[in-house]
Amino acid sequence: MWLHAKHLRMESSSELVAEGKLIGETTYPQRAAKWQELDLGIAKIDFFDPKTHTVHEVKKSNKKEDAHRAQVKYYLYLLEKMGVENPRGVLEYPKLRITEAVEWDGETDKEIVERWLGEAQAILQGSCPKKLPKTKCKKCSYFDFCWSGEE
Q1: For the DUF83 domain, which residue ranges apply (predicted)?
Q2: Considering the domain boundaries, does residue 96 fall inside one?
Q3: What is the rounded CA–CA span in Å between residue 73 and residue 76?
Q4: Domain count of the fold of the chain
Q5: Does 151 map to a domain?
Q6: Which of 20, 43, 92, 102 has its CA 20 to 30 A from that of 64?
Q7: How far apart are CA 104 and CA 53, in angstroms?
Q8: Do the domain assignments include residue 110?
């Protein structure tokens, strides 16, 4: 997050990001015609259904994670702030063949997301945080940036 906020972007050269995009495109090829990408300026939603106000987030992971739900809740927060009424979210795991609804509980979730944003702002105010353990970094697009030259 800190590196991304400082405009050090690694997504364009990341094989992991490319793999995720490929899974989204090949698993759901009809979506490009049916739904649209939505660029919110500070976030980009891959698939958005404007009729039902539903965010569809496709994950290449073979396990469900709290971070996935948090990402969708952040998107729902942004949409609500932009005036979208009753935003909804869906997480899709093609490898697991699972679809999970992500509920948005207006005020409660708004408070949670705003707390996350405050915590993120505190991190961004400081200097670059220390690296996480390598085991937590292997699937990150910044892995080579952080760990090149180290064993």
Answers
A1: 1-148
A2: yes
A3: 5
A4: 1
A5: no
A6: 43
A7: 12
A8: yes
The domain of 55 spans: 2-124+133-144
Backbone dihedral angles phi then psi of residue 26, each to the nearest 5 degrees: -85, -25
From first to last of its 151 residues, the chain has per-residue pLDDT tens of: 788 788 776 665 556 556 656 665 666 656 555 667 788 888 888 889 988 999 999 887 888 999 999 999 999 999 999 999 999 999 999 889 899 999 999 899 999 999 999 999 999 998 988 888 888 877 777 887 788 776 6
Contact 62, 95 (CB under 8 A): yes
